Amino acid sequence: MLAIALVSPLHWLGERLFTAHMIEHEIVMALAAPLIAVARPLGAFLWALPKSTRIALQHIFKGRAFSTLWRVLTVPLNATILHGIAIWIWHAPVLFDAAVTHVAVHRLQHLSFLGTALLFWWALIRRCDYGAAAGHLFVTMLHTSVLGALMALAPRVLYHAQTSEAPQWGLSPLEDQQLAGVVMWVPAGTVYAGAVLAFAALWIRRSSQTVAPAFRGQEP
Question: Could you give the CA distance from residue 98 to residue 17 in angstroms, rounded to a whole number?
């Protein structure tokens, strides 16, 4: 998923078309990040590094300071807030256009999206009750849908640098912005809604497994 988003023609197209850029971001945050959180690949990744670097990173990861910081950042509420802040801040028109025109800012934007998404999904998958995870995802689905709707229904162009090349692809700048908003609003919202339903189903299943034996124990 990361390769599709960041090193495929989609990335090249995303620098020229807002809709493609939004698809790229949603792949990073709503698909790649949860897959990485499920896979827990850090241990395997470390073996790709030189021995001295691997040992140094292991000391850092096992240190008290990093462990404390990680526990704080992966508290579900904290991770949900951080991820939401990153999404809304980077979609401020001035910052989004800056990411398109400056390579360093663009990389920082992608790092912010991926980093906070990893914290968010890790917290939900590894540190959260299924019911609470569904709640955090529902809130995230709501506020990202609102952001997408604001872009889709805006009566004027907000992202001038990002949409400046849209006419070369048969779209007006406003149409490009509206399509990008729809991508965040509907397809990405559908992914979050599916995850909400999955967590809710797991929560109901676990609850029924817990309650059923108690009722069986009360049978005469």
Answer: 15
